[in-house]
Task: inverse folding
């Protein structure tokens, strides 16, 4: 007897394989990513208006954490998973993270594997930072390529400091839980606004 498998969307897989086993709600994921819960809901339910392909990379330990309680874990994934991330980044037009990750990890958001053919192309680094908490000396501002910081206020003194550090800072409408990405961020990332 053969069973017919139901097609599963990437959003359903995210909900079933990641959120449900960890007991994480869509709201908690939205808070972690620094975006509005409506965005996560639309991805999970397959109703996103973003037409570009997206890959979501999350690293978590068996207990659902991203580091040890004291914050000392640098790598919670193995060599193969890190190599996969470099291949994903090499194919990507943009690498997106939240300001919480920038503050906790000071990531580079670069493609670091010299074996990958980039032909001078570098993915755009994008930081969702509703409150402009990204430090002006963050590592991601010190590498070749462009960095876009999406925030509620693009005219504050903090925004000026980030621009002086090489970032492009643009305003996006805010929401209760962060930035309302559906309002206009996807349009900006595609360069149409």
Result:
């Amino acid at each position: 007897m053969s069973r017919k498998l139901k097609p599963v969307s990437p959003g359903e897989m995210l909900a079933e394989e990641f959120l449900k086993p960890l007991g994480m709600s869509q709201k908690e994921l939205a808070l972690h990513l620094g975006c509005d819960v409506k965005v996560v809901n639309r991805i999970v339910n397959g109703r996103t208006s973003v037409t570009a392909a997206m890959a979501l990379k999350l690293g978590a330990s068996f207990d659902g954490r991203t580091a040890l309680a004291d914050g000392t874990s640098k790598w919670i994934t193995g060599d193969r998973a890190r190599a996969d991330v470099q291949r994903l980044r090499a194919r990507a037009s943009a690498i997106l993270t939240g300001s919480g990750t920038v503050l906790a990890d000071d990531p580079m958001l670069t493609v670091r594997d010299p074996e990958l053919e980039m032909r001078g192309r570098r993915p755009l680094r994008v930081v969702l930072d509703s409150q402009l908490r990204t430090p002006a000396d963050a590592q991601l501002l010190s590498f070749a390529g462009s960095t876009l910081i999406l925030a509620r206020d693009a005219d504050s003194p903090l925004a000026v400091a980030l621009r002086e550090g090489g970032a492009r800072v643009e305003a996006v409408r805010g929401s209760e839980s962060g930035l309302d990405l559906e309002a206009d961020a996807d349009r900006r990332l595609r360069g149409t606004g």
Remarks:
- The beta strands are 94-98, 124-128, 147-151, 168-171, 174-175, 178-179.
